[in-house]
Amino acid sequence: VCDGGNLDCGSGLLLIIRKAVNDVPPGGILEIRSTEISVREDLPAWCRMTKNPYLGWAPDPAHNKYFVRKGGEVQPETAAADQQARDYRWQCRVRWAEGMQCTVYCRNHSWAVGQPASFDVEDAAPSAVEYVLGALGACLAMGFQIHASRRGIQVEALEIALSGQIDNIFVFLGVEQEGHSGFRTISGTLYVQADAEEEVLADIWQHTLAVSPVTSTLARPVTMDIALRQVF
């Protein structure tokens, strides 16, 4: 059984299905569960492309069930798609706008970012370090919801409150050298309303923290190679 929760085929479900199909012997049947209605349209097309026969679907009170027969060995297209996911590079461009503000561009999105050392109550744009906290919180919120749905748990409401303390912001401003200008500590609380015992939710939360891309990025050393190139 492959439980995709509320993921659709474009947001990670196919990656999960491909891994599950690999563990099924040729001719075996994989049951796929999802609450996302669009899977009914998208999964048959994927099955045709990967030569894994689509056997149909059946409704269930908690989710829809889809049945796929493994057609043989892993198709080259499937292996290539897995490798593409492993090798994918996330990208963005940042352009200084004016004064103390930049604009970030990635895919079809753009947003304004203010200076890291702003302590005003109101500002024209969130600071760069606030975006770090926001990215962490959003990654954890979406991750928790995804992992809960894959266990059949309905999340009714969810909110994460985060705060962080910079080790020494004066290092960034160039007036002190002791310490560093990164976060020293980040703390917070997840508030969640869901139809499950607190012990189960706590287990999902610990799993979410362990596999979150943003948490892992902040908690581990990252190799950085950011060069300068003068243009005329």
TrEMBL record:
InterPro entries reported for this sequence: KH_dom-like_a/b, OsmC/Ohr_fam, OsmC/Ohr_hydroprdx_reductase, OsmC/Ohrsf, TusA-like_sf
Q: CDD domains this protein is in? A: SirA_YedF_YeeD
Q: Name it.
A: Osmotically inducible protein OsmC
This chain's source organism reads Tectimicrobiota bacterium
Phylogenetic lineage = Bacteria, Pseudomonadati, Nitrospinota/Tectimicrobiota group, Candidatus Tectimicrobiota
